[in-house]
Each structure stands twice: as structure tokens, then as C-alpha cells.
Design a protein that fits this description.
344 residues; Arc Repressor Mutant, subunit A; 3-stranded antiparallel beta sheet; Enolase-like, domain 1; alpha+beta; 5-stranded antiparallel beta sheet; Beta-Lactamase; 3 domains
Length: 344
């Protein structure tokens, strides 16, 4: 990558980041607070001396701290671009993986948003896709069967159920045909008692399996009860003085960790006409989450396919860089839409 050790590069990166923020020469004591190396000021001074000798930093005058040289800036920018390119490629690869990797995809999306904006990011799993696309029964062993339920958006849920040991492969095939013939394309509310009774009658001695499969389908395609929300960048709160005092930071972090309260943002963003009206910006007391009155939230709806919608949100101080955040959110919406539909 370059001639520097990992430790030297981290110190150079800390010098550049601090100098970009303050415009002032950076000393070893300051760097000891900005790195995760847990090094003494004396050790950092030695490393800074090496960086200066190699031409990556300069000392503008005696007894002053250091500032980056052109060579230092070049290494930093080249490495940053390489890291960003790798990050984008990793995200694209994640988006192109099989649909049963949705959890990892959303986690990676939240992480990418947090890194890019330097605020806290949240991404909710898609909801609303409550129609069954396909289900598959397959034997695990003599007493157990795997039920794979595929719902709208290619969301996959697996359930293990107990079965009689005398269930043959031929009977499993017949049950697959029976269940898919009756249930494909239906929402849970479309599956009524008369339909279940008819399937049980056709299943004969294996009618109990029908009830268990229906339970597995219901668990797989229900919406609000199991809404997942992925967050990243919680530590970014401490970068902003107005949010970092003990009481405020504790309230915000609690709200983020107890993700059930973030449902309010998801519900608000997905409600009514707002889901189709683009990006929503909630400032201060407009924020639909208790304990976040000192924050702003930029949120938007993404849609994987008809009826499969989720929320992307950025949480930060009221003085957040709205232009950058809105641009980042729009870019992510387009990327999710483009890659998902190209994959499918």
C-alpha cells in the first residue's frame, strides 16, 4: 500500500483530520486523544519525527506542532479513495448476493451511510410484502422437516417442524404441490378456514402438517411485530458538543439501542402520502421520537418491489450538513433500487 507502518499511517491520518478541522498545527498530546493506539506522547513524538523525515508532515516553526505536507495529503487522499472504492464494491457485492442475505445487506447499508455522513444511520427491514411467493418442504431427518417460506421481496424464513417418521418423499412432493397450488400469491388475510379445511382433507393422514405450515407462513410474512431496524455510527453523537453531555447522550443512545422507539420514525415515514413524497426532514421537536428533541432526522422510503417498503434515516444535530445528508440518502435510494431490480 505504502511505505508506512499501520501505526504511522494512523498517526498521519489523525494529524490530517485534526488539521482539517482546526487549521492549527497538531501536537503529540492532541494526537494521543484522536487515535486508538493507546500510545504515550513520547512514542507519538518519535513517530511524528519519522513522518517528518519521510516528508509526510512539516513543522512550520520551532516548538509548533506538525501540519501535513503535499506528500502527506496525497497519501491520505489516495488511501481514502481506495478505501471508498473498496467500500462501494463491497456494498455492490452485498446487494448482489442471494436474497437470504438481506440482514447483512441492511447492516452494510447502515454502516456505509454512517461512514459517509459521519452521523448516526438507521435502516429498517422492508415491510408490507405480506404475500407468499413460494414455499418448500424438505426432509431434515426422519422426524423433522424444513419449511422454507419465500415472501414478496424474496424474503426467506426457515422453520423446522416435527413430522411422522413414515412420511415418504412422494408424500412430501404431494404436500409441496398441494400447498403451493392453494397458497401462492396470497396474503395471510386471504387464507381462510374453508381453504385450510380443504387442504387438510386433501392431505389425508398428514393433515396436521398443513396446520403447522400455515403457522410457519403466518410467522414469516407478518409485518409490524418483527420489524427489524439496523443502526450504525452511534458513537458519532460524541462528535457534537450539543449532543455529547451525559444526559442528552444517554437519552439518545438509549433510544437508538432500544430500537423499538425508532419504529415511530419508520411508521411516520411510511405513513400515508409521506411514503411517496420523497425525503422527510424532521427538525428538533418535529422528530417523532421522544428524547431526540435536540436532533434532526432525515428519512426516506426505499422500495424493493411493489409493496415492499422500508426506511433509511440519518440522525444528527440540528446543525447537520443537510445538503450532504440529503444527497447521500438520495444516492443510496437510487443504488438500492438499481442493483435490486438488476438482480431480479
Amino acid at each position: 500500500m505504502h511505505e508506512l507502518s499501520e501505526r504511522k499511517y494512523k498517526i498521519l491520518e489523525a494529524i490530517i483530520r485534526n488539521y482539517l478541522e482546526t487549521g492549527e498545527p497538531v501536537g503529540s498530546r492532541t494526537i494521543s486523544k484522536y487515535t486508538d493506539l493507546n500510545l504515550s506522547s513520547a512514542t507519538i513524538r518519535n513517530e511524528m519525527a519519522d513522518l517528518e523525515e519521510l516528508g509526510y508532515i512539516l513543522q512550520p516553526h520551532t516548538s509548533a506542532g506538525r501540519i501535513p505536507s503535499d506528500k502527506g495529503y496525497r497519501l491520505y487522499v489516495d488511501q481514502m479513495l481506495a478505501d471508498k472504492e473498496k467500500e462501494v464494491e463491497e456494498l455492490k457485492e452485498m446487494l448482489l448476493e442471494k436474497s437470504d442475505q438481506m440482514d447483512r445487506l441492511l447492516e452494510q447499508t447502515a454502516k456505509a451511510l454512517a461512514v459517509t455522513t459521519e452521523y448516526t444511520a438507521m435502516v429498517s427491514a422492508p415491510k408490507g410484502g405480506n404475500r407468499l411467493k413460494f414455499l418448500q418442504l424438505s426432509r431434515v431427518d426422519s422426524d423433522h422437516m424444513l419449511v422454507v417460506v419465500v415472501s414478496e421481496g424474496n424474503m426467506i424464513k426457515n422453520t423446522i417442524i416435527e413430522v411422522d417418521s413414515d412420511l415418504s418423499d412422494e408424500n412430501i412432493l404431494k404436500l409441496n404441490i398441494l400447498l403451493n397450488t392453494h397458497l401462492n400469491g396470497l396474503a395471510m388475510e386471504d387464507i381462510n378456514l374453508a381453504m385450510i379445511t380443504a387442504m387438510k382433507q386433501q392431505a389425508g393422514i398428514h393433515s396436521d402438517i398443513i396446520g403447522e405450515v400455515i403457522d410457519a407462513v403466518a410467522a414469516a410474512i407478518k409485518n409490524d411485530e418483527e420489524l427489524k431496524i439496523y443502526t450504525s455510527g452511534t458513537h458519532n453523537i460524541f462528535k457534537y458538543p450539543e449532543l455529547s453531555d451525559n444526559t442528552k447522550a444517554s437519552e439518545i443512545i438509549t433510544s437508538l439501542e432500544e430500537k423499538t422507539v425508532l419504529r415511530d420514525i419508520v411508521t411516520e415515514t411510511l405513513s400515508g402520502d409521506k411514503a411517496d413524497s420523497g425525503i422527510q426532514v424532521y427538525i428538533g421537536e418535529e422528530t417523532p421520537v421522544e428524547g431526540m428533541e435536540d436532533c434532526s432526522v432525515v428519512a426516506a422510503t426505499y422500495e424493493l418491489e411493489e409493496g415492499m417498503k422500508g426506511t433509511i434515516g440519518i440522525i444528527g444535530p440540528k446543525r447537520m450538513d443537510y445538503d450532504k445528508v440529503i444527497g447521500t440518502v438520495k444516492s443510496m435510494l437510487h443504488q438500492l433500487d438499481d442493483v435490486y431490480h438488476r438482480r431480479n
